[in-house]
Amino acid sequence: MTDLHVGRGQTVKLGVVDGDLRVGNNATIEASNDKNVIVTGGVYLEGKAYVNCDLECDSLESKIFLSKETTFKVLSSKQRIELTGRSVGWLEMNGNLIAHKQLNVSHTVQVKGSIKAEDIDVGGRIQANAVTCNRIRIGGRADVKNTFEASSAEIGGKIVAGVVKIGDLNVGGEAEVNGGAITGNICVRGKFIGKSSLEFGELLVYGRGSLPANCKGHRLSTFGKIDIAGNITCDYIQVSGLVEVRGDCHTERVEVGGKFDVSGSLFVADRLEGFGQTKIAGNFEGKNLRFGGKFQANKITVNEEADISGKAETKEGFKAKQLNVRSGTKVDGALIGERVEIGKSPDRTFGAWVSTLPTKFQAMTGGNVKVQDIYAQYVLMGTVCKATRIFADIIKLEQGCVVDQVTYTKELKTDFDVAIHQPPQKVTALPPAPF
Amino acid sequence: MRDRETKRSRTDLYASVLEVLIRYPEGGKITRISYGVGVPIDRLRKIIENLCDFDLARKLTDGEQVYYFATPRGLEFLDTYWKMQGFFEIFGDKRP
Q1: Is residue A311 in a domain?
Q2: Neighbours of A62 (CB within 10 A)
Q3: A240 in contact with B at a CB cutoff of 8 Å?
Q4: Separation in Å, CA of A18 to nearest CA in chain B
Q5: Mean pLDDT for chain A overall
Q6: Which fold would CATH assign to domain B10-83?
Q7: d(CA A28, CA A30)
Q8: How far is the C-alpha of A300 from the C-alpha of A179, rounded, in Å?
């Protein structure tokens, strides 16, 4: 094994180096076969280096050389020493780079071809056509034109990449990717932009996110705003700020703490919960629904239980197996269900503390629900509730209820002070529900 | 070294420094932090001194080498900073 040293500012042509290669500041390396240089040991850059060919090595390292030492006094009479860097670890390559183990560059790596390495650690910035590695850590910024493959990527400030295949991605400020798959956790502190369809594991964006159509993921959460340009399939969506979907949304579970806006239809396999505002231009279909706030949709179909408070607006109607409309709620559109309870539970729009109120107060504040038509097997209306028409087998109306029209098949029970504008009709068969 | 339309505020700089620091759990050296943040060393020293005074970062001297770390309070600051940025996005404000 013979180590080789390329002097400062020199240009050398190399073939195979059996041992380590030391490259002086501003030195240039070229291949004797016009293709590649192979170094069996490590490459040590003593400053800025230029490589005009492919380079294959065990490891590549650069360090900073300090030339100037200045000592000066500050007001507190403490001495401070300033060290000024003479040459920094900087690599510029025209070919491809293969480092079987570690690529460690103090400042910047600019590679026109691709980089393949086990472990990449860059002080400031990396620029490459393609990067394939196990773990990458960049102090500041990464620009990868085409494919970027890594098990774990830690970027201090910003990443702009083409098609990605990443395990975990942790970005300090901003990430812009052109599709691919990020299977693990993605934590983007400021902004995330996906330009082509992306598969993701857990995407957490603190500021603003933008995803294209046809993305698939496990979990999507935002504290700020996320725009999705088309359909999306995601197991769990957590809206702490604002999420806009310009298409259909298929999900297992949704939690809305802010505003959730869907231009298409929303399909929830398990449940939607929230206290914010949900606006769906198309239909909503889900297993369970619990919300307190404002919920708008063309048609709502809930297979199991729906528990609503606040305001619900539908054009075609709201259907659930068990439907509980809490006190103080206003519903526009027909209600359809097996069992419909109106104004029997306290309002949830103010959060969980309502349940801690004394029962007497809850009873006082109960009722005050305004609904339109109800189609059900069993309808129970609490105090001071208003409905337009009720079609049900069994109907119970408590004190102060006001109904325009009541049609029933089995039983009608009314407390005192109940107003039914038209005489109640007992029929053998109820008219069909809207859907 | 970054594409910036607007000048970074002091708070943005503090956040950027801490973002780089958390990527060096074994301790970050001043030069590397400066490359990561994109700020010259003399300015960075003042910023890091402030961060240390506010207990957002910690300085550790090992012989001649000085390493900087983010403290739990620094992580808390970063979390709050990005959450606030999220709120500014909703409000439509570009800067805190």
Answers
A1: yes
A2: 27
A3: yes
A4: 31
A5: 88
A6: Arc Repressor Mutant, subunit A (1.10.10)
A7: 7
A8: 33
Q: Mention every residue, 6+ apart, whose C-beta is less than 8 A from residue A214.
A: A197, A230, A231, A232
CB-closest option in A139, A223, A258 to B35: A139
Measuring CA to CA, how many Å separate A108 from each of A27, A156, A301, A313? 16, 14, 56, 56
pTM: 0.84
Backbone angles phi, psi at A98, to 5 degrees: -120, 120
Put residue B75 in one of left, alpha, beta given phi > 0 → left and psi -120 to 50 → alpha.
alpha
B1 pLDDT more than 50: no
The mean per-residue pLDDT over the stretch B76-88 comes to 89
Report the Cα A398 to chain-centroid distance in Å: 46
Which ranges of chain B does DSSP label H, i.e. alpha helix?
10-21, 30-37, 41-53, 72-91
How many Å lie between the alpha carbon of A11 and the closest alpha carbon of chain B?
27
- Beta A21-23 vs A114-122: how paired, if at all? unpaired
pLDDT tens across A59-71, in order? 998 876 655 555 5
Among candidates B2, B31, B82 on the partner chain, residue whose Cβ is nearest the Cβ of A207 = B82
Mean pLDDT of A274-290: 93
User: Is A432 inside any structural domain?
Assistant: yes
B82 touches A at CB < 8 Å: yes
- Cβ neighbours of residue A371 under 8 Å, at least 6 residues apart? A325, A329, A330, A331, A335, A342, A385, A386, A387, A388
Domain that holds residue A31: 1-67+84-128
A270, part of any domain: no
Task: Select the residue of B1, B86, B87 nearest A124 (Cβ to Cβ).
Answer: B1
A241 and B33 within 8 Å at the Cβ level: the answer is: no
In a domain, A203, yes or no: no
Task: Determine the residue among B22, B85, B89, B91 to mutate to test chain A binding: the one whose Cβ has the most chain A Cβ atoms within 10 Å.
Answer: B89
Q: Which two tokens stand for residue B46?
A: 């003042």
Q: Is B87 in the A-facing interface, judged by CB distances under 8 Å?
A: yes
In this structure, are residues A348 and A294 in contact, taking their beta carbons and an 8 Å threshold? no
Identify all chain B residues contacting A190, using CB atoms and an 8 Å cutoff.
82, 85
d(CA A314, CA A323): 15
**How distant, in Å, are the alpha carbons of A61, A63, A242, A389 from that of A49?**
11, 12, 48, 83
